[in-house]
Specification:
Two copies of one chain form a homodimer.
Chain A: H1 4-8, E1 11-12, E2 16-21, E3 24-27, H2 50-55, H3 62-69, E4 72-75, H4 78-86, E5 104-107, E6 112-114, H5 117-120, E7 133-134, E8 148-152, E9 159-162, H6 163-168, E10 173-180, H7 186-192, E11 205-214, H8 215-221, E12 236-241, E13 244-245, E14 255-257, E15 272-274, H9 283-286, E16 315-320, E17 326-327, E18 333-341, E19 348-354, E20 362-363, E21 365-367, E22 384-391, E23 398-407, E24 432-438
Parallel strand pairs in A: 8-15, 17-24
Antiparallel strand pairs in A: 1-2, 2-3, 3-4, 5-6, 6-7, 8-9, 10-11, 11-12, 12-13, 12-14, 16-18, 18-22, 19-20, 19-23, 21-22, 23-24
């Protein structure tokens, strides 16, 4: 039995790092070096884990408790435990915005949710309320008046820009760009072998029109020469989504939109931009969001051996009919709809659809969005919706509908999931399959 | 029976287009509009087809004779036929260069050949003599002294540059770039269903160091502003290959090297460059080198519906052991080697190798070329060679070795050939498979 005072005296690697959890005392000194979240863990040293685990809800998993139990050294004194419990921990998620009840929730705290896939392709522009939500933490509430964007690593020294500066000193540009989570369609990887991460369906992807200042314009104003800053990427410091202020869930007051890259690089609530010749050393750049061979497991993974996911590969999925649905045999025709997108500004040029599990293929009609001018070469940032109306195969009682897309570099989707399976469950882009009954 | 004079009087669409072939007379007026080679066919109007078919050897196919036979209107008079035959037709291929006897020849006239695949990966830089050869016609013999490169569509009017101008007025740049024929690995498509085109194995791909003037430098000298002409593409007007004058088979005196694009865009013996906002209307850009759905056949193909192949998708193949070879069981180990490459400057970041037909995978060691600096992001133009040394599975009598590559956009190769099959047999990049016996 230890007193709180004894626990509190262990707050560094030199003195040892002790924490408490539900009345247990744990010496986690040796664990600090292997903590996936890095030395942030030291913030909890000498005290209770509960407030931090409430904030970083990723810890609420059985295997985390198993790891912790290995480090148990004793119990906290009953008196100190009682004191600890009397401190009411406020729920850090209590100020999260209200969300649409139609969303399919993958985790509540932090909030991660996708739209119902059947309605995803009903609108070329995804309404902000149903645009997929991806959060690692509570949604920050940022005061727009005191907000400053710090820009560092500039020829003329650092810049601090107010929201007003961004809105008035630079022309507003709009870009229609699709964002996709690296973990979109992870559930299909989970079906073949368990991976780590949220169990996304096919709808961790959405399309919006973003408005804001060009990062290029800000860098030019900061002293960069025009030749040094390519405009091809269409990178935005976005303060608008679909014509309105950015919603809190999508980064209010400011997010970066880096068209053609994985959602993770489209940082929300951005506070600081550092121009650097070095790749960011952050956890999300170095130790996560990387792809590995299906033969790589948690014992052999070497994060340094793979590049960070930036551009995503070609993707498509069937949004309608839903898997397990029934289609009317009497109509003698089936309508198949979905989305298709590719990273790096590569345009989707064809979607093949099969009604027989991939034996024969028909070409779907692509829809690039009404009123959308054709994108310049290499700058096709938005998805295409697609549709195929095809006769029902005579006598068919069941259809196995499959889709696969081709982009302007003639990249194609892989046939099957297992050979692209990876321990993080990212980059899931095998042919999408649904089975439907003919009624 | 017609006289030569009567045939010769039919030399236009108005008067009808007549030709002779082996003593037959043919009225091909209606065929002119659908001739795959365009109105070049009118050059033969009023005369014999033989000299042209000797030049354009693609006509030496049974189905071409079948098409011709439909247009027969009579016979040439015996006397005129005798005269015609007395005209000796010189072989237009007689001045083609001497080639290395080790090449695997796909067609002699025009000359198309690939290196033996087993030696392809023995050298990071492919020696020019065994670099794959791809010709549509006899090899032009260009006099370097009178050679002029015409550059048109320029702000300051047309330019005519001598070879000396290109070598002395612009700095020489070198780029190591892999070229791949769109039809590489076409033979694997032929195995599942017949396609049109040369039956390439896995070696219609090679890697060389090209030296020449940057197209960008030429365009800047012609009055373009630096912002208008990106340097990211590293496009060369190359007069050197592997440190020597370009060989005749590879475009002497000048070829364009457009790194990251399909071989067809790396035009040899280039005579004229036109800067234009419009896509080239040429046969090779509009009516060939395009990808289609496996469901598209020659009755339904609409060339306008697909974009021209520019950047190629990710590719890899096993060069050793060869398909059907035997490996020594006593060594208890197998060494698998091959190449991997992707278009658009995307770097190959991983090659997975399977010894069991794709059920389990191991990661190969990549070799980027000795003395090669790492390429800048998005400008990885050269292939990687790779090698895996792996224990032989205990008791294995046969191995089905498979490889697949991943590029920096995390594009992957498709699992199988049939779903990417297309009537032209291009873009064949499914997992490569070889079967070997364990001895």
């Amino acid at each position: 039995v230890f007193t709180q005072e004894e626990v509190t005296s262990h707050r560094s690697l030199e003195d040892g790092v002790w924490v408490t959890y539900r009345g247990g005392v744990y010496d986690i000194t040796e664990f600090v070096a292997v903590h996936p979240g890095g030395d942030k863990i030291l913030l909890a040293a000498g005290g209770a884990l509960e407030p931090f685990w409430s904030l970083y809800a990723v810890h609420n998993q059985e295997h985390v408790l198993e790891i912790l139990s290995e480090y148990k050294v004793g119990e906290l004194s009953a008196e100190d435990l009682k004191k600890q419990r009397s401190v009411q921990t406020a729920d850090p998620y209590s100020s999260d915005p209200v969300r649409h009840p139609g969303l399919r929730v993958n985790s509540l705290k932090p909030f991660n949710a996708e739209p119902p896939s059947e309605i995803l392709s009903d609108s070329y522009i995804t309404p902000s309320a149903i645009f997929f939500k991806r959060n690692h933490l509570p949604v920050p509430r940022v005061d727009p008046g005191s907000y400053r964007l710090q820009v560092e690593g500039l020829p003329g020294g650092a810049l601090a820009l107010t929201l007003e500066d961004l809105k008035t000193k630079f022309p507003k540009h709009t870009v229609t760009a699709t964002l996709q989570c690296a973990g979109n369609r992870r559930s299909e990887m989970n079906e073949v072998k368990q991976v780590k991460g949220l169990n996304w369906g096919i709808a961790a992807i959405s399309n919006a029109t973003w408005g804001g200042a060009k990062l290029r314009d800000v860098l030019l104003a900061a002293g960069y020469r025009p030749e040094a800053v390519s405009e091809d990427g269409d990178v935005l410091l976005a303060y608008e989504m679909n014509g309105e202020d950015l919603p809190a869930d999508h980064g209010y007051p400011l997010r970066v939109v880096v068209p053609g890259t994985v959602g993770a690089r489209n940082v929300k609530w951005v506070g600081r931009i550092t121009v650097s010749a070095e790749e960011s050393g952050s956890h999300w750049q170095q130790n996560d969001y990387k792809g590995f061979s299906p033969g790589t497991d948690w014992d052999t993974v070497d994060y340094k051996s793979a590049p960070a996911i930036q551009e995503l590969p070609v993707q498509s999925a069937i949004t309608s009919p839903a898997d397990g649905a029934a289609v009317e045999g009497s109509s003698q025709e089936v309508t198949v709809r979905g989305y298709a997108w590719s990273g790096g500004g590569r345009e989707v040029v064809r979607v093949d659809v099969s009604l027989d599990g991939g034996k024969t293929w028909q070409v779907a009609r692509l829809e690039g969005g009404q009123d959308q001018a054709p994108p310049p070469p290499g700058r096709a940032w938005a998805w295409k919706l697609w549709e195929l109306q095809a006769p029902l195969p005579p006598g068919a009682q069941e259809l196995e509908i499959v889709c696969k897309a081709v982009d302007s570099s003639y990249n194609v989707q892989p046939d099957s999931v297992l050979p692209i399976w990876n321990l993080r469950g990212v980059l899931s882009n095998a042919w999408h399959r649904v089975r439907v009954k003919v009624r």
